[in-house]
Target: Carbohydrate ABC transporter permease
Amino acid sequence: MKSYDARGRDPLFQIVTNGVLLLSLIIVVFPFLYVVMTSFAPREEILTRGFFLIPHHWTINAYGYLMNSDQFVTSFGNAVYITVLGTFVNMVLTSLMAYGLSKTWLNGRRVLSFMVLFTMLFSGGIIPTYLVVKSMHLINSFWALFLTGAIAPFHLIVLRSFFQNIPVELEESSRIDGCGELRLFWQIILPLSLPAIATFTLFYAVQNWNSYFNAVMYLNDATKWPLQVFLRQMMNEANNSLENMTTEFQYSPAVKMAAIVLTALPLLVVYPFLQKYFNKGMLMGSVKG
Model:
C-alpha cells in the first residue's frame, strides 16, 4: 500500500519529478553557464586550457571589442529596430483582425476564419512569396520582414478566443453610452486582454529578434542585416580563419561567446516581467474555439 504525505502526494512520485526537473535544469543552465564564463576568459586560456567553467583570469576585452565593432553595433541596432517596429505591426494587425473575427454577427466570419486556418496547413512557398515581395518592390527593405510575417495564424486564433471570453454585456453597455468600436477596442477590450496581449507581444518580439532566414532572403545590403545574420557570418568567418588570425580578439572564441551573451541578454531581461501573464493568457485564450 502506498504512503502519502500530509498533502496527499506520493513521495516516490515527488522524488522522480524533482529529479527530472533538476536534470532538465542542469541540461539548460550548464551550456549557458559555459558560454557566459568563456566570454570573460582570455583568448590564450581558452586555446591552451581546454574545457573549464571558471576562468583563472577575468577580462572584458571581448565585450570591448564588440562594442567598438561598427558592424556589430549596426546589426544590434537593426535587430532592435526590426523587433520594436515589427512587433508593433504584428500586434496591431493581429489584435484588430482577432477582434473582428470574434464577433459572431460579422458577415463572412466563417470564411475568413477558414482562410486563416488554411494558412496553418498550407503555405504559399518560398519562391512564390519571394516573387510577391519582389513585385511589391520590397527587396532590401525592412517591410519585407514585417509584412511577410505580419499575422501568425496560431496567435490570431488564440487571441480571437480570448476576445470571445469577454462578456458581451460589457460591450453592449459601452455602445449604449455612445462608445464607438475603435474606442471600445482601445479603452475596454485591450485593458481587459492585457495577459494575452503581453503574451503574444513577447512571442512576436522573440520571432522578430531571431529573424534570420527572411533577412538573408530579402535583405541584400549588409548594413541592414540584423544581429542573427551577423552572428552567422561571424561564426563562419571565425571557423574559416581560426588559424590565420592577425589580431588577438578578432572572432576569437571569447568574442563569439560574448556575442551570444549580448544577443540573448535583451530577451532574458524582458522575459521575467512578462512571465506572469503567460499561463493566464494562454489558458484563457484556449477555453473557446
